[in-house]
Amino acid sequence: MPTSLVTGGAGFLGSNLCDYLLARGHRVICVDNLETGSLRNIEHIRSDEFAFKMIDITGHYEVEEAIDVIFHMASPASPIDYARLPLHTLKVGAYGTHNTLGLAKAKRARFLLASTSEVYGDPLVHPQPETYWGNVNPIGPRGVYDEAKRYAEALTMAYLRQQGVDTCIARIFNTFGPRLRANDGRAIPTFLSQALTDRPLTVFGDGSQTRSFCYVDDLIRGLVLLAESEVHDPVNIGNPNEMSLLEMAQLVVELTDSSSEIVFEALPVDDPQVRQPDITRAKDLLGWEPEIDVREGLRRTIEQSTERLGGP
Ligand code: NAD
Fold first, then answer.
1. What is the pTM of this model?
2. Is the shortest distance between the CB of 146 and ligand 1 below 6 Å?
3. Is cis: bond before 76, omega within 30 of 0?
4. Fold held by 3-176+215-239+276-290
């Protein structure tokens, strides 16, 4: 039975990944300091093959057990979180990634870095292939996150080239699904909580900026395929189905049967205008592409959000 270690395993993606790995017969060690995650995301797990370790990975840490694969998911990930935790975000990207790569080296484990489409910044190439180097503002408010991830990618490649660690890098595009926090500032959970409580949906700017939203089950399947492959170069994992934020707000209103209106607010600094993954590499190297469309993904997410809000 393979053993996987998931840093950030009590977060949105990490906890969905723990469920998926356990269902595939892995032993899972979940490492988290609960900075933005919650025990609520893993409290349903009853398996004897699951262990939770409360660890802040910005400090040196060791794990006794043998480990086959490390999924390095820990990092504040929403704009609200990294604006609140700018130094922590940089430290997780630097020390946290360094410590976790060191653990992968000691355990001779395959290492997967959860990177992000934010490494492309406000892209001048559209859609974004992995060969595009990006257009990031290093000193803007989002710089702490974007540059932490770019640094983490550089560190990962250095451990691959110089230390012989078996690494891979997933560039994750906007993902949604059950367990996203209603108040974490990302578009879909914000729209959903507003629509489900009949409050106005707040769209930034004129809502014409685009995003490509991937349902969490598709994303997790892609991450595990990448971890199980022999690929070392970065791979985009995301849904190429692009839509404007205004269209997304309208779809949420429709699917929740809400009476909310849509209102417009000032655009945040450095908000990317477009975002769409070129997933040719994921298709060619992993045989992966998304299977769940945005409507179906939203329906599943709404069901879970309604349960959490105690609604109908
Ligand atoms: P999340 O905030 O729900 O999860 C992050 C987890 O990391 C939390 O459980 C948090 O407590 C933990 N963590 C933070 N600092 C830590 C530390 N010092 N030590 C131990 N644990 C720590 O965010 P998420 O959406 O699940 O994102 C997971 C990863 O995927 C992140 O690395 C993020 O950058 C990346 N990502 C996510 C998306 C997305 O759309 N969700 C998009 C691109 C990249």
1. 0.96
2. no
3. no
4. Rossmann fold (3.40.50)
Lookup: tokens for 17: 């990944």
Q: Is 73 in the pocket of ligand 1 (CB under 6 A)?
A: yes
Using most ligand atoms within 8 A of CB, pick from 7, 36, 145 the residue to mutate for ligand 1.
36
pLDDT tens, N- to C-terminus, the chain (312 residues):
999 999 999 999 999 999 999 999 999 999 999 999 999 999 999 999 999 999 999 999 999 999 999 999 999 999 999 999 999 999 999 999 999 999 999 999 999 999 999 999 999 999 999 999 999 999 999 999 999 999 999 999 999 999 999 999 999 999 999 999 988 888 999 999 999 999 999 999 999 999 999 999 999 999 999 999 999 999 999 999 999 999 999 999 999 999 999 999 999 888 888 899 999 999 999 999 999 999 999 999 998 876 665 443
Q: How far is residue 226's CA from residue 75's CA, in Å, rounded to a whole number?
A: 20
Q: Judge whether 172 and 279 are in contact, CB under 8 Å.
A: no
**234 CB under 6 A from ligand 1?**
no
- Residue closest via CA to ligand 1's atom 35 equals 114
Dihedral (Cα; 15, 18, 22, 27), 10-degree rounding: -140
61 is an active site residue: no
Cα 32 → chain centroid: 15
